[in-house]
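Board notes (copied after class):
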Amino acid sequence: MNFIFWKKLNNLGFATGKLITGLWTTPFKNPLLVMFCHNNAQIASEVAKLLELKAHLGTDDGKHSFVLKTPKGTRDYNPKQMAIRDKVFNIIIGCFKRHGAETIDTPVFELKETLTGKYGEDSKLIYDLKDQGGELLSLRYDLTVPFARYLAMNKITNIKRYHIAKVYRRDNPAMTRGRYREFYQCDFDIAGQYDPMIPDAECLKIVHEILSDLQIGDFRIKVNDRRILDGMFSICGVPDEKFRTICSTVDKLDKASWEEVKNEMVGEKGLAPEAADKIGEYVSMQGGADLAEKLLKDPILSQNKQAYSGLTDMKELFKYLELFNVTDKVIFDLSLARGLDYYTGVIYEAVLTQNQMEAQPQKQQNDHSTDEPVSVGSVAGGGRYDGLVGMFDPKGRKVPCVGVSIGIERIFSIMEQKAEASEEKIRTTETQVLVASAQKNLLEERLKLISELWAAGIKAEVMYKKNPKLLSQLQHCEETGIQLVAIVGEQELKDGVVKLRNVATRGEENVPRANVVEEIKRALQS
């Protein structure tokens, strides 16, 4: 039995110098090993450990087994999903450009010190990179702080810009709710010294336009002001040093009950229960310009300078929103806090009130499948941050800024499930014409024709076979949504024509070979 045991170990590959080779080759000369080998239970245990070690190290040929998957909180996008994304991006970018914005780009990683201290309690979600040649770096958490750094570094005092790029957060992902660790943000910001609330009102108008154009469901845009919140905290008895941490707790009211929020304030943050109760009275208030008027008459709150300034601007904001015809979707909500530290004035957040996902979605054949309808929270948010640029400027010069970020990944989740529930056919290419042949040995004619179409700016394809069957070519057009087929055949070559076939109607016409480009353009326009 001992010989068989050692032979098995040798077969596993551990007797070739991986461990103490001298012990393997002379097992019977060592009395300790003889005692060891007589213990069957211990033998089995050691074999199991060795097998586990072998599996961990890999096989003898150097190959290691691994699981093919995307990292946690990330995903791939197939062509149909990319087509939906392109549609969403086009709508958003079109709106940004309509409002006169220009675009910039910044590095995907920043110096760690650039990002540190800008996000309050969310700073723990920043991805830090290993030391790379003496620089401590972090992946960008959002696009706002890099934008402020860009303004300060380039001494820019006014700009209207949009930026669409990926950001990274070491968060607990909720894939079915459009919450990832790597995701796109679509930001629009106005930097510069302007009259109060005019740029702020335009940002809210932009949110209204985008969500209306996307047709993802009914929505509401909540607005508040950090100055009103700080004034409220002050009169309720919150110590100055606890303003930001209590603000972060209030920000959880959209996900948690008031009792849970109060327990965190009192139990974890050390706030007096009576102060929490006073806050509870205010954060339950919602309204419009009328609520701003009411709070301006509040004998206690209106005496606070910050709160009074915020309420006066809120009243002005609603006047401009009325002119923009968006007040039907905007609510002044005192529970809105937004946890980021850099906000200094108006803040806002758009939420869906109806996802239009009554139909149960079909199960996806990927890691992100779910049998539950998509349920998302905020789909846009932003606010005023007048002090952020000054944090980077050597002389502390401030550049007032206000902006909005569209929660694009959450919108993608809704759009994808809407398309699937409706069984809508989504085109993943923009090909307009397929150049086809009716008989064999016409590859050269097809390639000549498609080269002319490409040169004329027409989106065209040709099948990569010398002699494809005509039926296969026509079926390809129907499956991919190609509108026209330009057919080259022996008879067409003799007659000096090309046959154009409308895929939808199956109607055909012969057009002169010399005029084929013009005729195809005409057919596509009609």
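Comment from the instructor: Residues 152 and 392 are 6 Å apart (CA to CA). The chain has 19 helices and 16 strands.
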